[in-house]
Design a protein that fits this description.
Distance between the termini: 19 Å
Strand content: under 5%
Structural class: mainly alpha
Oligomer: single chain
Number of strands: 0
Largest sheet: none
Shape: globular
């Protein structure tokens, strides 16, 4: 399994994050592609920019795929992104869920093993 890093945001980064996220989502709602929506947001910190774009894509996939039932291929077409990019983000989301659920299980059940062994 690929390792993922999780970002802890400062107060200023939180402000930038939410403003950027709102602008990206507004762009998508107005019919822009994912890349067009992201390029409309100016963020000097490249690492923060990448986290925001990754989160935005995962949020859109979660809404469209898990809530609305849209296929990953259709999401790619709608966002004008390759199905490979959509699939990669989808796989990362599932790994994020696995990691988070394991951490919660460990906190709630410190004496129990994780897994099905």
């Amino acid at each position: 399994m690929e390792e993922f890093s999780y970002k802890s945001y400062t107060e200023e980064e939180n402000r930038i994050y939410y403003e950027a996220m709102n602008r990206i989502m507004e762009g998508l709602r107005s019919g822009l592609s994912f890349n067009e929506s992201c390029s409309g947001v100016s963020i000097d910190n490249e690492e923060l920019r990448q986290y925001i774009e990754d989160d935005a894509l995962k949020i859109v996939i979660a809404e469209m795929h898990f809530v609305q039932g849209t296929s990953l291929e259709e999401i790619g077409n709608t966002l004008q992104l390759s199905v490979e990019i959509i699939n990669k983000a989808h796989e990362e989301m599932l790994q994020d869920i696995e990691i988070t659920s394991s951490e919660i299980f460990r906190l709630e059940n410190p004496d129990k093993p994780i897994g099905n062994a």
